[in-house]
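Anyone else keep sequences and structure tokens together like this?

Example one:
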Amino acid sequence: MYLLPRYYDRQLVTTYEFLGIRYGDAMRAAASATFLVTRLLADGVRLVASAIPIKVIAISAGVQLGYFEIIFVLVTVTVFYTYLGGIRAVVWIDAAVHSADRGHRRCGIFAGVAWHGSAHGAAPARVPVPAR
């Protein structure tokens, strides 16, 4: 609630513009550089994290691939579909991943509720009472 009125008052588009006006160009540049470095590191982690299960699947299929080869293929495919489809391809892939993620979460919640309700007595137990 603090930043939004200031964006509208000054007709700002990015947070970096606000930082430049409020704290100076040095802070704006430092924030931009920090964002770029952390994005670069995060992308590297995502690539390696994606390569690990692919390597396990390849080994179980009898194919010996190194991490470098797997990461090279991942980067090549990503650059190729982004080049062919432009930003539209990136948005559609992000939308598909988001939809799949929401579906997995819903399935997980449903499975957790169903498991917890039946296995741990959350639902009322229907135990017959012996007749006297």
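And example two:
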Amino acid sequence: MIMLKTALTAALIVAAFPAVAQHDDSSSAQLQPAAPPEAAAIQQAAMAFGQCVSAGVQALDAAVAPEPGAAGVAAGCASERDRLEQAAQTMIATLPEEQQPAAREQLRSQLAQVETRIAAGIRQRREAPAAAPTE
């Protein structure tokens, strides 16, 4: 379940600020000040969303199919998702104007895949015990 939370968090954070993800000059990174407050807000919102999704998946009845289960979990975490989207939009607004449309599209695309990723996480969670050796 940690992998699902981490994957969602990483995907949404990367989608939220692609310019940071593409920047790999380690020497200048060492000279840069601490992350802006917008980045911290994204991280906090992403963690809250990931925790909500994780708890929702864990509480999901085994009889519920992955897709409807994912839709239910996503609906139950709508306020956390909205906070994450708002934090990402705030960060995107700080990017140079020419980068904002691409960043918004990446964010939209990532958020559109949330239910699919949750469903995949549900399947993975359910298959994990079946793969374990029995005594």
